[in-house]
């Protein structure tokens, strides 16, 4: 159960992170947003990133083996990175419709999944 909760929280966390880091690139198409200066955009992104941390910190605390969770620190990091790239891929396809995924992207994702597999191998 802690593994599922950890992964769910990491997915939520990374969803906010992707919006904070890359959402402003698309939000600039909104009339009111396009008039904002860089400092305003940074502050809005920080506000969104706050919610990233609201999910990231509990995910790591719940999932960390030394806190009673199922994952080592290295395993948590690899899981988090794979989730980040998966969330980014979905976000890119939905929000930035001009982006396309090619075979080399799919191969790279397969290697990331293999990285997770080997990370959990004893």
Automatic annotation (TrEMBL):
Protein name listed in UniProt: DMT family protein
Highest taxon listed in the record's lineage: Bacteria
Annotated transmembrane regions: 36-55, 76-96, 102-120
Keywords of this entry: Membrane, Transmembrane, Transmembrane helix
Pfam families for the chain: DMT_6
Positions in coiled-coil regions: none
Presence of the UniProt keyword Membrane in the record: yes
UniProt organism field: Aequorivita ciconiae
Organism phylogeny: Bacteria, Pseudomonadati, Bacteroidota, Flavobacteriia, Flavobacteriales
PANTHER family tied to this protein: DMT FAMILY PROTEIN
């Amino acid at each position: 159960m802690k593994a599922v909760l950890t992964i769910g929280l990491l997915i939520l966390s990374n969803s906010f992170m992707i919006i904070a880091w890359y959402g402003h690139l698309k939000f600039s198409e909104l009339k009111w947003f396009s008039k904002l200066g860089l400092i305003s955009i940074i502050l809005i992104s920080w506000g969104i990133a706050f919610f990233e941390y609201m999910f990231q910190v509990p995910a790591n605390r719940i999932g960390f083996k030394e806190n009673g969770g199922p994952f080592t620190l290295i395993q948590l990091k690899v899981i988090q990175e794979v989730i980040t790239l998966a969330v980014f891929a979905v976000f890119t396809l939905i929000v930035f419709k001009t982006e396309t995924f090619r075979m080399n992207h799919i191969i790279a994702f397969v290697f990331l999944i293999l990285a997770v597999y080997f990370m959990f191998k004893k």
